[in-house]
Design goal:
Largest sheet: 3 strands, antiparallel
Distance between the termini: 22 Å
Number of strands: 12
Shape: globular
Helix content: 40-55%
Order of helices and strands: EEEEHEEHHHHHEHHEEHEEHHHHEH
Number of helices: 14
Radius of gyration: 23 Å
Amino acid sequence: MITKCPECDQSITFSEQNKGKRLLCPTCHCTLRHVRPLQNQRVIAFSLTALTLLLSSLLPNFISYTQHGINQSVSLWQACVLLAEQYSYFLAGLFIFTILIMPVVVCSLLLLSHTSIWRKVSPHNARYLAKLLHALTPLNLTDIFLVAVLVSAFKLMTFAELSMGSGFWLYVLFVLCFIEAISCLDNDYLWQHQNHKTDNQSLAISDTAKRCKVCGYVSHDERCLRCYARLHHRKVNSIQRSLAWMLTSVVLIIPANMLPIMDTVSLGIHTPATIFSGVQVLWEDGSYPIASLIFIASICIPIFKAALLFYLLLRIKKPKSPYKATRIYRLLESVGKWSMIDVFVVILLVSLVQLGTVLNVEPEVGVVFFTLMVLCQIAAVNSFDPRLLWDKGNR
C-alpha cells in the first residue's frame, strides 16, 4: 500500500509484513501507523466504559464546599443549567460541548464503527459519520477540563472547605477511558470497512499525487475516491490564513491579559482578577505548581506560539533545516489547547460557586477575549501546512 506523509509529503510504501505496526516516516520521523493488538475489542471496551462513566457522573454530587456554615453541593448537570440560566450562553455552550456533547458523539461513533453494524451502514452515510468522527477527535478537551477542575479546587481552598463527590471520581475514570479509546482508533481501519473498490497499491509513486486530509487516501484526482473530499496538493492559502489568524490572536492577547476574567464576591467585597493577578495570588498562597502551570499555559504558551509560528512562516520563505522546523510544528500542535485551562477554571468557578453575598464568582469580559485568542491561535496552527517546509528542494 502506498501513502504519503502528512507532514513532509514523502511517498511511502507499506508491505503486508508491516501492516498494523508502528512505523516512522524516514524523512521527518513522524508516526505513520500504530495499531495495537486486539484493536477492535479495545476500542469497544473503552468507548462503552467511557460512555457509561460519563452519563453516571452528570447527576451525582461533583463537588461540595462549606463557608461560614453554609454548605453547597453541585453536580455537573446543575452547573451547566446554572451557567446557561444566569450568566453566559457562550460559556454554557462551550462547557456543555466539552464535557457532554463531543464525548457522547465520539464514543457512539467509535462503538458504531467497530461493530458489525458498520458494514451494514450505507457507504453514503458511513462517509459522513467517518468525517464527523475525524473532525471531532482533535477537539478533545476533557483532559484540559480535568486539570482545570483541580486548579479550581486549589483556588477554592482559600475561601472554603472542599470535598470531591462521587461525580468527580466517575469523571476522572471517564477521562482515562475516553483518551485510551481515541488513542486506539485506526483511521485506515475506519475507511477500509466500507467496501470501496479503490486500492492504493495500483497508484504509482509520484510527487503530483495528493494525500486526502480526511481519510489519508492518495490519489491524482480532484476528489478523494474513498471519502469524496476535495483534494489539494497543499492547503489553500496556508501562509496567508495562518498569518491572519495569528495576527488576530496577537491583537486579542492585550485585552485578554489586561481585562479581568472573573470577579469574586465575598461578603459583599468585589475582587476582580486578571490572569496575572490570579497567578500572583496562587504564588503568594504557596501553590507554586498550580501558579506555574497557569502562568505557563495562559501567559507563556500564547506568546511562544505566536513567536514560533512566525518563525515557521519565515522558514518557508528562507528554507533551512526542515526537520527542526517540523518538530517545532508538532510542538505547537500538542501544546495549543492547554491555554484553555484558564477558560475552564472561570467556567467552573462561576458555575460551582454560588452562595449569594457570602461567596459568589461572576465572569468578566476578559474571559471572552481570552477564549477568542486561544481559538484564533488553534486556527492559525491548523491552517499552517508543514509540507511547505519540505518544498523547494529541502528534502
